[in-house]
Design a protein that fits this description.
Elements: E1 5-9, H1 14-23, E2 28-32, H2 34-39, E3 42-43, E4 46-49, H3 56-61, E5 62-63, E6 67-69, H4 80-85, E7 89-91, H5 100-116, H6 119-128, E8 144-148, H7 152-161, E9 167-171, H8 177-183, E10 187-189, H9 194-200, E11 203-206, H10 220-225, E12 231-234, H11 243-252, E13 257-260, E14 280-282, H12 291-310, H13 323-330
Parallel strand pairs: 1-2, 1-4, 3-5, 4-6, 6-7, 8-9, 8-11, 9-10, 11-12, 12-13, 13-14
Helix pairs in contact: 1-12, 5-7, 5-12
Length: about 325
Amino acid sequence: MQETRVAVAGTSFPAVRQHLEEMLPGAVVEAVPVELLRSGGCAAEVLVPAMCRIDAAVIDRVDGLRLIHQWGAGLDGVDIEAASRRGVLVANVPAGVGGNAESVAEWCVMAAIAVNRRLPVLQRVLRSGAAWGDPPGRSLHGRTAGIVGLGGIGQALALRLRPFGMRVLGVRRREDAELAGRLGLAWIGGAAQLPELLRQSDCLFLCLPLTEATRRLIDERALALLPAGACVVNAGRGGVVDQAALVRALESGRLGGAALDVFEQEPLDPASPLADRPDVLATPHIAGVTDSSYRGIARRVIENIHRLHDGRPLLDCVNADPAGAQASRDS
């Protein structure tokens, strides 16, 4: 295989570079700080975003760029139209490919247990030397889970919640009785059934991408529909939740807690009211950062690099020309 230059846009998620270096021998893989990328640019055939907005200005700074490949599914941070105008392909790795969905679903289960068992509070009790055996937590057994977004992650999560004895509901773009039966859900409603799902959800799981339709979908009105003491678990995108409304709901005591792996602005400001609340479990966008998930994603990215060199159509390319046109551009 010819030498490939891969630039990881940003210095977050260092395991991305490590996996590419290990699994793509002979390639030059460089992590480029965002500030340097915007001011001085770099030379690379493939650009992998790592918590960096890829807009027209960044694209123009990368000499020889042919492919922007998301390390995962979400492309809300990539200006696909700008890339297309410049003849640059854009591809992603869907959540159901390579083990990412399973890893994120595991995080959701862990997070729901931790929030309901009040893990952040328990850690403070242990460090303070206070009396043991308090505070009591809440069990998942017998409660209702509502999953908003039933793509790869939502489906993997549904299968993992049922053994805990939870009643599981779901909402996606359209009702799907067949999928509900296959996953063992009580029901799967369309978008119009979201208010009903919220009213019944002791644990609300958000597993959907950020689009104009989903931006701040969970706002003050939506949060008010949740039962008293409910928890919110967000492993989708931070912009799906109105964070200010979430803080108000927590401060009022109506919500039992929140588990957040994603935020409206990332990295999260350490001074954010969400950073140190005892009723919030906050993690730094690591729900899908596992050994199995990263190996699976790396295999798909590397497969597309091979396809790029061979002039073959890419897998999961969101702006691909027909195969002949793509091959012509690559020749």
